[in-house]
Design brief:
6 domains, about 15% strand, alpha+beta, 5-stranded mixed β-barrel
């Protein structure tokens, strides 16, 4: 028989066992609640496989991926009859959790294989390029046009090494037409590599567009073919619309109207683009769900209104369903006219499912609709997962649908009981809440991708969104309906007026004190924790969604886990920058490689243009660690975290600087045997590694260096293929 002391000793174990049972019971209850929501997690699990594929440093064999997927599918089919059993059900569930990421992985492999295009490895030209004009996009000011050529041939370049498409800049507004086959003298270069390790991968983005080279046109040598008419080429219609818009509106308004109607944003001036971005209105410039829903809604409303005026149609035909079908056709045409980018595809796909729900008398908006749209896009375009547009678009839609599903009863009751003025108030309340929810959902993505947060975005959206819905888009719809008859002038003027007011709102908002918070680059781990928190909050049913708070806390805690680089070196070696503890960045030049420097400033959390050019510091000033560098015509010297750094401009300074410095950075080749510097970076280092980032450990004096090549690896879109390197 147990004594009292033995019972007291066992009490904690009993309590612990009871607590464990409670946790296990709670977990079972929570997972039981998710059965009806399991389908919502399907695109999430597919995304895991896609993300793994793009994270690999080398290209996996396609046959291996397909074989693994087929084996998993066969096992799943074998276990299907036993899915309701206790053991068979668990194994069946485990296989589903494996096959979904495998499906995403295999879809990404197939997509990469199907869109294959060679990417040129080095600069070519001047050289003759022959191709068909696929699209034309106007650039701001006097920068000319951006021309996309397809079906190309390049002088002295083998067919197997020729890209499918090239993107060229014509310095002047030359009379190119979509569908023309032209011969031009051009300079071709590879797409720009990431400007720092972890930066945006331009070659990968261009690869999936079929673009293997960029450059500029010296002159047009010949026009070989000219299209006979408009035909069914949507790009010809886009060009015709662009010519009308630019011919009837001032440049600033024409650029934004073009962005809102035909999806061409490159003509927007840097001033207006910055104002819209800093005011939190950049999403209005990109055609997405808002634009598609406005166009589809306007077509639906006016079509149904016109049919309702006819008693015969109203009494004998399902005018609501007919109007829904017509609005969907209009939305599809708008998508094609706008260039069919990923957010537009998502919006049109969701619109199509909403129309289908209306035809079947079902509830049109739901989280299942969002999940289905995401799944379709991830299967057809797996590369969209790693794009900011896909992530921000679905984050906003998921948050909005989740929010309004939870508050639907309130809105229905409030709207049914409200009078005219109350309904107007409810509309503005809806705009405020929609902007707040969407801004909150997309804030982590904006911080991770763009290192910028517009503080007064809610205020600007409160004015700009009604302008877009009640003035700009209706006028744009009327303008395009009248454009074939040459009657679009006045609707375009109304649209331009709304655009001018929107830009004024953006400029005023962006000028407010503290309108923008510049953030340092986020660690990828923090970004993943934020995504996990958002998914749990929106998709999980029951009080288990409070676990999202744990992931949000982990995201906050890990923000400081990433140490920004101390020194950055561009791919060419012409630009070197280092950041001192006083949140100041010194750059070797501010005249060349401005785009690279702008990106470096952004990832460091500094405003654009905040870096300082290397000054002519005195020797007394340079005695302080982390102070301004000391420069002459041959080299610059700097102290940083106990290390002596030399940036050499003239080869004659090699001997002196090598004897003095711990870290040498030079544009020309170095003789490593005759240099005492522990870290030597020269032309060949940059050739092998690409742009470099260096971290100095102040405690032990070690230096860690990482190049862009380590990020891009050896993939089909990589510029640095090791087997192609010349010794």
């Amino acid at each position: 028989m147990l004594d009292t002391q033995s019972l007291d000793a066992m009490a904690p174990e009993i309590q612990e066992s009871g607590a464990f049972r409670q946790v296990r019971t709670w977990s079972k209850e929570q997972f039981a609640l998710q059965k009806e929501r399991a389908v919502l997690w399907l695109p999430v699990h597919m995304a895991l496989g896609i993300g793994l594929y793009f994270a690999l440093p080398v290209e996996p064999p396609l046959a291996g991926g397909l074989l693994a997927w087929v084996i998993l599918l066969a096992l799943l089919s074998t276990l299907h009859p036993y899915r309701l059993g206790q053991k068979g059900g668990k194994l069946y569930t485990a296989l589903i959790l494996l096959i979904l990421p495998a499906t995403g992985f295999t879809a990404a492999q197939l997509r990469t294989h199907l869109v294959y295009t060679p990417i040129i490895a080095h600069k070519i030209g001047p050289v003759t390029v022959t191709g068909t004009v696929e699209s034309i996009e106007r650039l701001p000011g006097k920068k000319g046009n951006r021309i996309l050529l397809s079906d190309i041939s390049v002088e002295n370049l083998e067919a197997q090494d020729t890209p499918r498409k090239v993107r060229l800049q014509a310095r002047q507004n030359s009379d190119f037409f979509v569908g023309q086959k032209v011969k031009v003298l051009a300079q071709l270069t590879p797409p720009s590599a990431p400007v720092y390790p972890g930066g945006y991968d331009f070659p990968r983005a261009f690869y999936f567009q079929g673009i293997g080279a960029v450059g500029f046109i010296y002159r047009i040598q010949d026009v070989l073919e000219t299209p006979a008419g408009y035909g069914w080429n949507i790009e010809i219609l886009r060009q015709a619309a662009a010519r009308t818009i630019w011919g009837e509106l001032p440049a600033d308004q024409a650029a934004i109207v073009s962005a809102l109607t035909i999806g061409q944003q490159k003509g927007i001036s840097e001033k207006n683009e910055d104002a819209m971005r800093n005011a939190g209105l950049a999403h209005l410039l990109a055609i997405s769900g808002l634009n598609i829903s406005l166009v589809a809604g306007l077509i639906f409303f006016f079509t149904r209104l016109c049919m309702a005026t006819s008693p015969v149609l109203a009494l004998n035909c399902p005018i609501k369903k007919i109007a829904a079908l017509i609005s969907f056709v209009g939305a599809v045409f708008y998508m094609l006219l706008a260039g069919a980018e990923i957010p537009v595809q998502r919006a049109v796909l969701m619109t199509g499912i909403v129309i289908l729900a209306i035809l079947m008398d079902r509830t049109p908006i739901s989280l299942r609709l969002v999940a289905f749209s995401a799944t379709v896009i991830l299967i057809l375009s797996p590369e969209s997962l790693i794009s900011a547009s896909f992530q921000m678009s679905f984050a906003a839609v998921l948050a909005l649908v989740s929010f309004y599903e939870g508050t639907a009863k309130f809105w229905v009751r409030a709207y049914s009981q409200a009078g005219p003025f109350q309904r107007i108030a409810l509309y503005f309340l809806g705009v405020c809440l929609s902007s707040l929810v969407a801004s909150t959902a997309t804030a982590p993505f904006a911080a991770y991708h763009f290192q910028r947060f517009p503080v007064y975005g809610l205020l600007a959206n409160l004015v700009a969104v009604p302008l877009m819905g009640f003035l700009i888009m209706p006028a744009g719809l009327v303008a395009f309906l009248l454009m074939p008859f040459g009657l679009s002038y006045w609707p375009l003027q109304v649209m331009a007026l709304g655009v001018s007011w929107t830009v004024d709102v953006a400029a005023w908002t962006a000028s407010l004190p503290g309108a923008v918070i510049d953030l340092k680059a986020w660690p990828f781990l923090s970004f993943l924790f934020c995504i996990a928190a958002g998914l749990l909050l929106c998709l999980w049913k029951g009080n288990g969604k409070l676990i999202a708070l744990i992931f949000a806390a982990l995201a906050w805690i890990t923000l400081g886990a990433q140490t920004p680089p101390d020194i950055l070196v561009s791919e060419t070696g012409k630009l070197v920058a280092y950041k001192v503890p006083a949140e100041t960045m010194y750059a070797s030049t501010k005249r060349s490689e401005k785009f690279v420097l702008k990106n470096w400033e952004r990832q460091a959390g500094l405003p654009e243009g905040a870096s300082l050019a290397f000054p002519r510091a005195t020797s007394e000033e340079q005695k302080t660690d982390g102070s301004a560098p000391l420069c002459d015509a041959q080299a610059c010297r700097a102290f940083l975290k106990g290390k002596k750094i030399s940036i050499i401009f003239d080869p004659y300074a090699f001997a002196i600087e090598c004897a003095w410095a711990d870290i040498i950075i030079a544009r020309e080749p170095l003789s490593q045997k005759n240099c005492r510097a522990a870290i030597q970076i020269d032309r060949f280092t940059l050739w092998r590694e690409g742009a470099l980032a260096l971290w100095i450990n102040e405690r032990n004096g070690s230096v860690w260096m990482k190049g862009v090549t380590a990020q891009t690896g050896n993939r089909p879109w990589s510029i640095w293929h090791p087997e192609k390197k010349k010794k």
